[in-house]
Design brief:
Immunoglobulin-like, single chain, 275 residues, 11% helix, mainly beta, 6-stranded antiparallel β-sheet
């Protein structure tokens, strides 16, 4: 049976078009900004390619620039002790998003959070090992306006819930069950995390910066992680992570904001339950 000319044309066009309009991966792009930032963040220290040690996952095109998901995973079996990790968003007004110190309880690094991205930007994770070596991985993210995006709640509602915490314990990480001896949890803190670049939609004045500057999680007195953050952590900060449970039955969370308000709470560790 002869092929209809229009059908034949559609088949040819389908073969000529790429399978996806966007690339599967979004590697770091060369740019001048990092060259200007580098010395202020790591000095003259050598930075090695970290692709064999860890991965950083972030969307190529963010659905919401104010809550861009970021996940960092250390390669299983790498055998390297990562003690610190710095998250950098090159084009943000305050590029250092967070500096995270890891305790031995955390074990292999597996952590996710949500960040603000103010303009199309490279997003980097720089890991420091126990021996002082630096390794870097990253992704290029298409997003804009995240640091100045209006808050999700009005000021009164945000202040009424300020510092409230919740913890969830999961049985899987991105649909992959944690290995034996590892537990996965998420800590969430109610806080507007005002960046100082957001405008009050009624008064048309800028809202002063007011954000969570430190989050510390401990298990039985031992450090799991300590995060020192800036304006680029999203509203209502959330951190999802795995740790070596070692029979741990509770996690203690302490957060401090830029007005020196302290929020503390202890949560039982009970798999797949919400506290």
């Amino acid at each position: 049976m002869p092929t209809h000319p229009l059908l034949a044309l559609l088949v040819l066009l389908s073969l000529a078009l790429p399978a996806s309009a966007e690339p599967v991966a979004n590697p770091l792009k060369p740019g001048q900004t990092w060259q200007e930032l580098r010395a202020g963040i790591v000095g003259t220290r050598e930075i090695r390619d970290g692709s064999g040690l860890l991965t950083l996952d972030a969307p190529y095109r963010a659905h919401d620039a104010a809550i861009v998901p970021v996940t960092i995973r250390q390669t299983a079996g790498s055998g390297i002790d990562i003690r610190r990790l710095t998250l950098v968003v090159d084009e943000n007004p305050a590029p250092v998003d967070a500096d995270v110190e890891f305790g031995s309880v955390l074990g292999r690094v597996e952590m996710s959070t949500r960040v603000r991205v103010n303009a199309y930007s490279n997003l980097r994770a720089i890991a420091e090992t126990a021996s002082g070596e630096l390794y870097m991985v990253g992704r290029f993210v298409k997003a804009s306006g995240g640091c100045s995006a209006p808050a999700l709640k009005d000021a009164d509602a945000a202040l009424a819930q300020l510092g409230r915490m919740k913890m969830r314990v999961f049985g899987e990480f991105d649909e992959t069950p944690p290995p034996a001896g590892r537990t996965e949890a998420q800590v969430m803190i109610r806080h507007p995390n005002y960046s100082g670049l957001q405008m009050n939609q009624i008064t048309r004045h800028y809202i002063p910066a007011h954000f969570v500057r430190e989050v510390e999680v401990r298990a039985g007195g031992d450090l799991v992680f300590r995060m020192t953050g800036g304006i680029s952590i999203s509203e209502d900060p959330a951190f999802r992570f795995r740790f070596d449970d070692r029979g741990i039955d509770a996690l203690a969370v302490r957060a401090v904001d830029t007005e020196d308000a302290v929020f503390e709470q202890s949560f039982p560790v009970e798999p797949r339950r919400e506290s």
